[in-house]
Q: What sequence folds into this?
């Protein structure tokens, strides 16, 4: 059995896939990669199915030893990865490309800043952990799934499934495969502006309680700027700004990733992959699926604003993204 | 019957919520349970999950696989002939609870608030018919309806940072059971050794929406890690 050894785990590195669906009635949320787009692309780049289990890196990347050579790809926030070979040579490798890591080499990942806060690291063959309730991702809140139901620690040995993809001709060297991506994917549209500039507004749909909010709150929500706070995590992106007065809810209601709740503090919470299945705070808006990866990458300190779009526009944007992803999938078929 | 009462509203672009009015009552619960069963059996294309709440059923779909307008029509068609008039009653589940002491640190405070003594409080809680309104908050956490009005109490002003797994707690007109040690704002009156959630069990949650629950008093203390599956 091939495996990867964790020399240093990074800040919060977990095994994730595209989510665990079908158990919400038991209170089990979807989990999975927060930035599903980066996850898909990382897998496609190494010839895996888009939903294979891969590593999700948070803020600071891990140091991983590869006893056996493997194809890997890092997407999302660039982590300034370097491959250190057995002979001690350090070779910087780019994100968004298939990379061959030779036998015995170490992959050293740095901080995600300033271009985002999460990266996906896929290995050809996929990480081989048991399927639990239809998912391989780590549920940190409930303590199951992924690698022993927890974030990675130094000394962990992560099993890797067999890959059909052949090693390169020069299997002792570090190989970077040139990528033939459609123009729309270069530069990748989810990155945060490097200079700290205001990114384009996050596109949202009206939430079920939108009309119940005072007019002043509705106006402030769309006209003001909110800053991502450091207590954001896999369950949600927490924002700070002018407090929004909110109505009270009679009952807890269902929530999904992207739901923007306004708790009594008046400070918005944008729910992410590890959200509970229900919530008791009014839902002013829901982030359109197209922009979930952008929220996933928003680092603490980033200013954000919101703009309303309609359901037809949300659908049109998704169809466009699907076309781009299909082209990308076709383009990466040769890797299998 | 239900088709006249229900509405369908979107929650973002990847979820439709079928709503059965705004109240919480037995008729609504039966409609929700029947609709959950019907939509689960229908296995509509693109639908990835069906989640019941007190008075809604959420239909979560992959927006790349399903169009919300078409899906909305399919849901209405499936629920057109919903028969929620004569459902089978929910399964009765007995939950052993050690009340008070270290297992129920808030029992005395609840007694003081309600003006009842501890014995009367436990008697009321164990003789009431509780019904699972929904599972939420955390994997396996049941929101139980049916807390007697005499036991109604607002949430704690400040949530506890750590409530032990198995804690049985009350707030407003509901009882909840914490499946895993977690923060919590309800008043802890006792503790059960039963495992509320086990990801390797099918279904993983001990209770499901619509189940009936009877609490059975046992003598404590419930030790951490003690589990009855």
A:
């Amino acid at each position: 059995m091939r495996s990867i050894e964790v020399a240093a785990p990074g800040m919060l590195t977990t095994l994730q896939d595209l989510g665990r669906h079908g158990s919400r009635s038991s209170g089990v949320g979807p989990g999975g990669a927060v930035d599903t787009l980066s996850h898909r692309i990382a897998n496609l780049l190494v010839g895996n199915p888009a939903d294979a289990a891969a590593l999700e890196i948070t803020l600071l990347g891990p140091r991983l030893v590869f006893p056996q050579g493997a194809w890997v790809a890092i997407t999302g926030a660039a982590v300034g990865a370097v491959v250190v070979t057995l002979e001690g040579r350090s070779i910087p490798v780019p994100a968004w490309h298939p990379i061959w890591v030779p036998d015995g080499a170490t992959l050293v990942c740095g901080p995600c800043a300033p271009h985002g806060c999460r990266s996906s690291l896929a290995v050809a063959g996929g990480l081989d952990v048991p399927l639990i309730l239809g998912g391989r991702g780590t549920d940190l809140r409930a303590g199951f799934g992924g690698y022993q139901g927890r974030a990675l620690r130094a000394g962990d040995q992560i099993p890797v499934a067999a890959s059909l993809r052949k090693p390169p001709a020069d299997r002792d060297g570090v190989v970077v495969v040139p990528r033939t991506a459609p123009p729309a994917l270069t530069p990748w549209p989810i990155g945060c502006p490097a200079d700290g500039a205001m990114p384009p507004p996050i596109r949202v749909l009206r939430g079920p309680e939108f009309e119940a909010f005072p007019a002043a709150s509705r106006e402030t929500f769309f006209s003001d700027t909110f800053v991502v706070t450091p207590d954001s995590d896999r369950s949600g992106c927490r924002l700070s700004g002018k407090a929004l007065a909110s109505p009270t809810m009679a009952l807890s209601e269902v929530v999904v990733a992207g739901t923007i709740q306004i708790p009594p503090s008046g400070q918005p919470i944008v729910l992410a992959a590890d959200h509970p299945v229900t919530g008791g705070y009014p839902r002013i808006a829901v982030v359109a699926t197209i922009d979930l990866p952008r929220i996933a990458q928003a680092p603490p300190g980033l200013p954000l604003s919101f703009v309303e779009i309609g359901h037809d526009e949300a659908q049109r944007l998704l169809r466009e993204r699907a076309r781009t992803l299909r082209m990308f999938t076709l383009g990466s078929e040769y890797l299998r | 019957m239900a088709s006249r009462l229900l509405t369908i509203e979107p929650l973002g672009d990847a979820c439709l919520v079928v709503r059965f009015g705004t109240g919480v009552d037995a008729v609504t619960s039966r409609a929700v349970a029947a609709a959950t069963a019907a939509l689960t059996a229908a296995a509509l294309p693109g639908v990835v999950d069906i989640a019941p709440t007190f008075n809604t059923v959420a239909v979560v779909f992959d927006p790349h696989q399903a169009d919300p307008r078409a899906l909305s029509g399919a849901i209405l068609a499936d629920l057109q002939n919903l028969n929620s008039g004569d459902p089978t009653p929910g399964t009765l589940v007995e939950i052993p609870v050690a009340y008070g002491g270290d297992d129920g640190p808030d029992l005395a405070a609840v007694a003081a608030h309600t003006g009842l003594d501890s014995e009367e409080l436990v008697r009321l809680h164990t003789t009431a018919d509780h019904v699972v309104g929904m599972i939420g908050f955390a994997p396996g956490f049941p929101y139980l309806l049916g807390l007697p009005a005499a036991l109604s109490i607002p949430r704690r002003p400040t949530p506890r940072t750590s409530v032990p797994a198995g804690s049985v707690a009350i707030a407003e007109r509901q009882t909840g059971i914490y499946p895993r040690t977690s923060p919590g704002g309800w008043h802890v009156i006792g503790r059960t050794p039963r495992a509320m959630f086990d990801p390797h069990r099918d279904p993983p949650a001990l209770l499901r929406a619509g189940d009936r629950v009877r609490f059975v008093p046992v003598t404590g203390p419930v030790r951490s890690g003690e589990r009855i599956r």
Chain B is about 20% helix and 30% strand. The mean pLDDT of chain B is 90.
